[in-house]
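Something for you to look into today, if you have time. Could you write out one complete protein record for me, on any chain you like? The space below this message is yours for that.
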Amino acid sequence: MIPRYSRPAMRDLWSEQRKLEIWLQIELLAVEALANAGLVPRKDFEVLKSRASFDLERCKELERTLNHDVIAFTTCVAERVNDPASRWLHFGLTSSDILDTAFAVQLVQAADLLISDVKELRTAIAKRAREHRDTPCIGRSHGIHAEPISFGLKLALMYDEFGRALQRLQNARKTVAVGKISGAVGTNAHLAPAIEAQVCRKLGLRAAPVSSQIVQRDVHAEFMLALALVAASVEKWATEFRHLQRTEVLETEEFFAKGQKGSSAMPHKRNPITFERLTGLARVIRGHAITALENVTLWHERDISHSSAERIVFPDACALLDYMLVTLTNLMQNLLVYPENMRRNLDLSLGLWHSQAVMLALIRKGLTREQAYEIVQRVAMQTWEAKHAGRTDADFLSQLKQDEEVARYLDSNEIDRICSLKFHLRHVKTRFRKVGL
């Protein structure tokens, strides 16, 4: 199994070529809106529409001299138009009208890809959850055996969590789908709000109700925090499966392909390296979230301290999360599951996971909670002592049936009825229905 790396669609979305294509689209939409308002001759707009283009290398060449990316771009386009109509390019606009509105388009398109990723991941989780709905395994709290669950129920929990991840991304998409064409300090002094609204609407955005020279960066921080939360969920489940692959647990295992090598020194190793990789990448996205929060505070109507950081962290975080979600989907589709080892691990607890059921049965017989707890804990400790002593009756049910105090309240048949695996898993189907599985 070869991991699928970030899809070309996400990489292309954040490429310089794609960014400048969106810039040109915004510039032309602005001129079109001006023409519709009778402020630009229609024939000039038609000239721009037919001739406007750019060459990425020429833009880079101009920027080396001009030291301004937007001016380099508009200069390049004007060269290509080669007509007096080029005077209407960037008319009444400021750089951030183009930068922030294009940024919003990129973020919305990135969100659409990530939303699709999560939907595919949930499909993969759902399939494995249904497959193992009734596969019993031990639940753990503090890393210690607690009570039985099913492996499918564990995956139903994962499915539900990524349902929340889907909602977060959908909400983040809505939040960030905001542009602005309001000028140098947000007053619409040179372009009316109607022009702004028309341009944003045609891009699938809403116009910011009020802005400075920029769209306010709490909007973008919220988007990044949503990405960080989704990455945290990926990390959580990567950590879970890494634990389940430990040699002394081995209830699940990351797929190990034919010809794959696990260690340069130890030929026997089969390591959860891809789950570990996901864990590390989540840390990177969390770091990017801190940067996005730092970008909220700027001087007055704008400075550009946010700009350099954004050009790194947002494309990087979107590409990383895309990779993480696609990779986790691949891992879930190919996850090796060992029900026999789950049963073996259940048996390691000597039936002690029945302790709460027995305690509650004693309470129903009339004992106080404290009395019942003391009796069950004493028998549980005797069970451990029997195991350490190597006795054949090192089993919780056997110890219960031999205990005189327990026998005053529960006979052997009652103990057998109370202490069943089916009892613990009888509501699993209901839980599946609640999460839509």
Summary: The domain at 8-88 is CATH 1.10.275.10 (Fumarase C; Chain B, domain 1). Residues 78 and 86 are 5 Å apart (CA to CA). The first strand starts at residue 136 and ends at 141.
